[in-house]
Amino acid sequence: MTFSIDAFGTIVIAVVVLLIGRFLVNKIKFFRNYNIPEPVVGGLVAAICAYILYKFFNISATFNAEIQKALMLMFFTSIGLSASFVKLKEGGKALFVFLICVAVFVIVQNAVGMGLATLLGLDPLIGLIVGSITLTGGHGTAGAWGSILESQHGIKGAIVLGMASATFGLIIGGIIGGPVAKFLIKKHHLAERLTHDSQSDETPPTTDVAPFEYPTKTRLITASNAVTTLGMFATCIFVANWMTEIGRGQWFELPTFVWALASGVVLRNIIENIFKIKIFDRAIDVFGNASLSLYLAMALLSLQLWLLADLAGPLIIILLVQTLVLALYAGFVTFKIMGSNYDAAVLAAGHCGFGMGATPTAIANIQAVTNSYGPSHKAFLIIPLCGAFFIDIINAVVIQTIIKFF
Question: Any stretches that span the bilayer, and where are they (predicted)?
Answer without folding.
Answer: 7-25, 40-58, 70-88, 94-113, 125-146, 158-185, 220-242, 283-306, 312-332, 344-367, 379-403
